[in-house]
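Reviewer 2 asked us to include a model.

Predict the structure of this chain.
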Amino acid sequence: MPESSSVTSGTGVVPDDSGAGSGVPAALAGDGASGSAGAAGPVAVDRETLRLALVVGGLVLAVLLGFGLGRMNAPSDPARPAGTTAGGVATGGADGGAHAHSPGTGAHTHDGATVTQGGGDGATGLSITSAGYTLVPSTELVAGRAGELRFQIRDDQRRAVTRFAVVHDKPMHVIMVRRDLGGYRHLHPTMAADGTWSVPITAPEAGPWRMYADFTAVADDGRQVAVVLGADLTASGAYRPLPLPAAATSAIVDGFTVGYAGTPEVGKSVPLRFRVTGTDGTAAALEPYLGAYGHLVALREGDLGYLHVHPEPVRDGDDVTFWLTAPGPGSYRMFLDFQVGGVVRTAEFTLTVA
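Predicted model (structure tokens):
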């Protein structure tokens, strides 16, 4: 990533007023009356004219001085927040390097490098470009037909990015969901040498889809930048949107009952405790998946804002605890991936935040 340009500083011109008000020629030091028409030597100037000239000159010098000092204190790019590079990567400004994360993740590092993430209102994935990175998909989906999802991540110089940190066991996480919040897919593509990511996919139903690329790029200077980018795709065919299922705190998938306890609040980090039980009512033997005992994604109805939260590293008995911050009131769809017996399953919930 290119470094931010150095701040151009200017120096104001300081006037030398050591002789102000002294050494005025006698021909200019009149009594205010105009000189006679036939007077010899320099043309006489009345005292009021001299005073006006000195005042105007002083004002001009003051403006020049203020302009120079202002340029010394101005940032190189007025549209760029202090303490950031051109790509929006935190450089440790007045906040000492503080940065925001997706809800529930808190401050964290990967291999000793600080991870930065723009927060907005807490939902990410609303833009195809963020933090100096752009998602460039090259995919055509046809409902019911096997295809391939292909895309690149490019930096602010339009170069394909090829350096990514492995986070939660993978360098790239892709979420696919239909605009009505159905058809959820969690994919892990592979990257070619030219930075093109690809993964097989079959769109089960026609309609507008949203893809999210969730990754941590490694910048040229070694810093890690966590980003979620989103782009719209379309699977050709007749589309009939489905209504959002009613809000519920439990779901059944492949004979497993998945329930959670906790009430999310706007702007407040709240724990949600999930428990998976088998047909006999006992706790299921959860296995680590993507480096944890669960993987939770929440999507906001309407703009499809993306909330990616991670569980506590240590389980609370049989529960898996996630911390979630709702950015605003409304309906959300939550997707919990969990693994039992080597098989990954997804439990889906509708959540209403007052």
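Residues 1-45, 59-119 have pLDDT under 50 and may be disordered. The two ends are 41 Å apart (CA to CA). We have added this to the supplementary material.
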